[in-house]
Amino acid sequence: MKTSTSKAELIIRAAEDLLERIGPERMTMRAICAAAGVTAPTLYHYFGDKGHLMDELVNRGIDEFLADRRSFRETDDPLLDLKRGWDRFLAFGFEHPWLFRLMIERVMQYPEIASEMHALTRSRLVRLCNMGRLRTDVEFASKALKIATNAVIALFVQGEPKEEIRRISSFLFEAVTARLIV
């Protein structure tokens, strides 16, 4: 016999899979029930409606993204750490394109969600500054990288092909860091 937690988890997994396969607009409660092997009353018992279920998916996505960032092991080279963080940001977006878009929407509504991520970037910039490798002040460098990140996010939201996002993202990172870092 399955526990209530496992039913809720089945629903979440089914919803995650459907979200990435067909997108949020085509993802119906009926399709989620079928994919999870549960009845509609079970789904509604745990999540109430599609909005609450989507909120749970986004919250879990944010938690997963931040947990990955927290587990990141710093090296002796803060520039390398910035690049690895940038690459992991892109990888998450490519692995979970629909979820990533929904997470971006949430961060636009509640910018404080991204504060931990910005603090990690800032700490790497502080390390570069302390090493005498930063050409500007930390605040300017932080804003420049944030703007470059927002440009890459715009490419995801616009649905640009992965290769185009990779190409432009790489260019932006290299161009911005070349001007900021010695």
Apparent shape: elongated
Tally of discrete structural domains? 2
Strand content: under 5%
Ends distance = 61 Å
Helix content: over 70%
Number of strands: 0
Largest sheet: none
Structural class: mainly alpha
Secondary-structure element pattern, one letter each: HHHHHHHHH
Continuous helix count: 9
Tell me the quaternary state. single chain
Q: Tell me the radius of gyration.
A: 19 Å
Poorly predicted regions are none
What's the overall average pLDDT, rounded?
93
Give a verbal description of the structure.
The protein is mainly α and 182 residues long. Helices cover 79% and strands 0% of the residues. The protein folds into two domains: 1-48, Arc Repressor Mutant, subunit A (Orthogonal Bundle), CATH 1.10.10.60; 54-180. Helix 1 crosses helix 2, helix 7 (115-130) crosses helix 8 and helix 8 (138-157) runs antiparallel to helix 9. The radius of gyration is 19 Å and the shape is elongated. The mean pLDDT is 93.
Question: How do the helices and strands line up, and which of them pair or pack?
Answer:
Elements: H1 4-22, H2 29-36, H3 40-47, H4 50-71, H5 78-95, H6 97-109, H7 115-130, H8 138-157, H9 162-180
Tag the structure with descriptive keywords:
79% helix, 2 domains, mainly alpha, elongated, 0% strand, Arc Repressor Mutant, subunit A, 182 residues
Summary, kept brief:
The protein folds into 2 domains: 1-48, Orthogonal Bundle (Arc Repressor Mutant, subunit A); 54-180. The chain contains 9 helices and no strands. The protein has helices spanning 4-22, 29-36, 40-47, 50-71, 78-95, 97-109, 115-130, 138-157, 162-180.
